[in-house]
Design goal:
2 copies of one chain form a homodimer.
Chain A (H helix, E strand, L loop, with lengths): L9 H12 L9 H8 L3 H13 L3 E3 L4 E3 L4 H9 L2 H17 L2 E8 L2 E8 L14 E3 L4 H8 L3 H10 L13 H14 L2 E4 L6 E9 L5 E10 L5 H19 L5
Antiparallel strand pairs in A: 1-2, 3-4, 3-8, 4-5, 6-7, 7-8
Helix pairs in contact in A: 1-2, 1-3, 2-3, 5-9, 6-8
């Protein structure tokens, strides 16, 4: 179906932009703040915020707007409509317990991975991860696996669109070096990351395929970096990840 | 600020309604489906869905629309803007490990509780719970605690607005009986539920207060129903919940 200009509701797209403008760093926004973050003019930002308030998605204290729990109906409406988290969670719980390490499943949303399920055994990362949490794809093991499933030109487009921050001294940020890593990931069937997201954290990931052989998600194990080499980590955890992947094959939509 | 009709964007409120129309039961909606679930006319539902597609929040296969991972930016934008999950998670992990039972924190959204943090030790419930999951307030221990923090007339309004399903033979559904339970909860400072949500599941909950003494969330322990009486469950877990509550007091916004 061809979408024509008159088929669109401008206010809806703008309002969603305003909801996305709220963040951990900016949980409360004035009308001017919302206008600055979204690029919408002040009058439009104001109408969006007032509409969100009137519909119960935002609260207003006379100066600042903040989002209400009602907004959770939107995003979790999406998680709830995904069979993936419900299917993988029991496998994840079992895997995580058997190897005594944290394990997660994520999907790709443009340049980021989104956690859809997680089984945590101990806290290794400085940030807390939960379903819905996001990390950049270029520097994570699950991101590399998900990028490896795309055609090269699409992978390159996403890498170019990524804010490729040097998160640690080990983070690969050069496009050619990343492309080489991703091609290697595709060939060997798994990705491994040694402290590229944050110091002290290692991770290995494999793709999860549906019955048609399409990569629909990534499964990883994250663990503390110790004195032993990455080879030991890979030989210890990749077999468990691959066997979880085999069990899940054909069950995923 | 008084909100006038001309301050509102009708399309935004309608579009959010359409996003909420997607659910686990109905993850894919045709234009007619969306119109039927939301009560919007067909032309409006169509424009909302096309706008969501054009902005990347929905995918269209020629007949059905489904939500994309981009929608997770909306709801998790909200979870991410809440300091609560990040503050309580470490306490929850510690509590859950020390008592070897699952523990959760939730907040109230109208007639439902919304999980914002969870530490799971073993699977007791038939459904899987994660941050963003919802359960009705009237029949859950955390819901009773959160309803008990409201003025009586507000509690009654929410109970009347709840679809009070007889989930098990033990579920209290009568408004007067529920009001009496909630008043008792307020007086004793905790709520206990014996298999009202589902058979085999018990739960005890306490309110979490901020520095001004306002109830901002509820903390619970959920466990399998065994031969021992609820009194044993209460005397075993309420002290741990109360001491976690004391530790958190003053840290919550």
């Amino acid at each position: 179906m061809e979408i024509k200009e008159r088929d669109l509701m401008g206010g809806l797209a703008k309002g969603l932009k305003v909801i996305e403008a709220f963040s951990l760093e900016k949980p409360r926004l004035s009308i001017s703040d919302a206008s600055a973050v979204t690029g919408l003019d002040r009058a439009t930002a104001r109408r969006c915020l007032l509409t969100l308030s009137a519909a119960g998605y935002a609260a207003y204290d006379g100066k600042f707007f903040s989002l209400t729990p009602r907004v959770l109906r939107l995003g979790t409406g999406c998680l709830a409509t995904m069979p993936l988290p419900r299917i993988v969670q029991p496998f994840l719980d079992q895997l995580s317990e058997s190897i005594d390490q944290s394990s997660s499943v994520s999907i790709l949303d443009e340049t980021e991975i989104v956690y859809v399920a997680r089984a945590a055994q101990r806290r290794v990362m400085s940030i807390s991860l939960m379903p819905g949490s996001r990390l950049p794809a270029y520097c994570t093991s699950m991101g590399r696996v998900l990028l490896a499933a795309l055609p090269d030109n699409e992978t390159r487009r996403l890498l170019e669109a990524s804010p490729r921050t040097q998160r640690t001294e080990r983070t690969i940020t050069d496009i050619s070096a990343l492309m080489a890593e991703i091609v290697a990931t595709r060939e060997r069937g798994y990705a491994s990351i040694d402290q590229e997201v944050e110091l002290g954290l290692r991770s290995v990931a494999v793709p999860l395929l549906n019955s048609r052989g399409r990569t629909v998600a990534a499964l990883n194990v994250g663990l503390a970096a110790t004195a032993e080499g990455m080879e030991t980590v890979i030989s210890r955890y990749i077999p468990s990840l691959l066997s979880a992947r085999e069990e899940l094959k054909g069950m995923l939509p």
